[in-house]
Amino acid sequence: MLLALAHTWPLVTAPATLSRTDSADGLLNQWILGWVAHALATHPLSLFDANIFFPEPRTLAFSEHLAVPALFSAPIFWMGGSPVLAYNVTLWIGLALTGWTTALVLHQWTGDWYAAVLAGSLAAFNTDTLTRMAHIQAMHLQFLPLALLALDDVLQRGERRDALRLGGWTALQMLCSGYLLVMTAIALVVGAIARPGEWTGVRLRSRLPLLLTAAALAVAICAPFLVQYYRVQHDQGLTRSVDEVRLYSGVWQNFIATGARLHFETWNAPWYREANSAAFPGVLPWVLALVAIGTGLAWRDARARMWLAIGIVGAALSFGPALPGYSLLYDLIPILQGIRAVARFALLPLLAVGVLAAFSLAAIRVRLAAGGRVRLAHVAGLVAVVGVNVENARAPMAFVRFEGIPAVYAALALEDAAVVAELPFPEPERVAANAAAVHASTRHWGRLLNGYSGYTPSSYVQHYLAFRTFPDPASLDALRHAGVTHIVVDVAKVPDAVAVLQRADGVRLIATDRRRRIYRIGARDTSPRRP
């Protein structure tokens, strides 16, 4: 946890106000954490019927559900904490747990705490996690090392309890993120394929039932969530086409790019600007990993070989359709059709380099100790651990200060069954402009026609076309027809709305601040006026 606080400095100095609320994705992910907490406390069976893009159902499935990370943030929401505070605490927990579980697994595999802490540091504090502060899902990789440890135990010992652990850890990791669901599944399959001698031949009869048991358990746990995404895919046609995936595929420059301050400020800035994702693990991790590969350690040790294969496959998949055969994999593996930013597969080689570096460091320290140079072995371990943390450090990070959700939104929390539209209604091409309205809805949880997510439904386009002439009478009628009971008007963007709404039938001002006015809109008075 101390490393998590240090690497995200100065976040710890003001955890309730510093954040990445300048990012639409940052606002979205804070809203998701808040929605899950709200739904669990009020109507857990309607978890996926989130309050955005009204009247669409299952709108949580338009993006990540963040079910497991949300369990860490929920108590903060329930105690009245802000979305920013809940997000930041959950971020620290994810980073700390990722580093801790990776270290525990590598210590079990190498018997060396220096190597273990090195691997944990590289798993938690790498250029991917430290350049994606707005993506809470990127911080929660804590179950993947445990799943691969369980896979190793299944292959080596072949006990039922190991299969149950494998299924349980796999499910928990998959429930952190849709992207991590795909990466975890691929990592486990590739890891097993890299060790054929441990589950084929005479061992097939004993190992295959255990592997199938683990898979069945993971699927059973994830099924209630997967069904929701399947229904959205079926009803909304939410599938990422190969052409769309191509736009979010990695480029070779990614593997040279890093946001680490030491490299960025000396030589890496041009490479970083050419990349669309950062995946350079650092010089020291690469040197140690190459030592493991060059000496054959990465081939001889089944666990290291497993991670080497995972890293190679992850790097290849990050290129998306540019990889020969990717289109065939896309057609054959349905879960690939649900993700678009395949450049994120580069996270797997980042993790793999860290693990291989740990195996290498452990072997170096064993040789030093065997030669009687015990003190030098300790120095080597300490230098390596400090070195990878210094090399990947990005602190002090740039955050923005969030002044809180405007108090005017509290008025909507007092309204029964509010259906809200924030106006002016952004055009579909600027749907991300709704992120602030989505985030503000954590103050009232009224149903919102606005929305921002990984997918925009056709109903949003229809609403935009109907509301774009606001505040004219036709747009007010369209709002009422859409079921809207309350409107939040940004008077700085629609200055003539104040005078128009003062004269409009059935419109009543209920709250205001310097920028926004909230109105209750009832049915328009259509009765004949007296002369």
The main sheet orders its strands as 4-3-5-7-6
Instruction: Return the domain count.
Output: 2
Major pleated sheet:
5 strands, mixed
Content of β-strand: 5-15%
Distance between the termini: 74 Å
Element pattern in H and E = HEHHHHHHHHHHHHHHHHEHEHEHHEHEE
User: What percent of the residues sit in helical stretches (DSSP H or I)?
Assistant: 55-70%
**What are the low-pLDDT stretches, counting only 5+ consecutive residues below 50?**
525-531
Helix segment count? 22
Tell the overall outline.
elongated
Structural class: mainly alpha
Keywords: Membrane, Transmembrane, Transmembrane helix
Transmembrane segments: 91-109, 171-196, 208-230, 278-299, 306-329, 341-364
Task: Describe what you observe in this structure.
With 531 residues, the protein is mainly α. The protein has two domains: 1-17 and 82-392, no CATH class; 407-521, no CATH class. The chain contains 22 helices and seven strands. The longest helix has 33 residues, at 204-236. The termini are far apart. Mean pLDDT is 94; it is low at 525-531. Keywords: Membrane, Transmembrane, Transmembrane helix. The chain crosses the membrane at residues 91-109, 171-196, 208-230, 278-299, 306-329, 341-364.
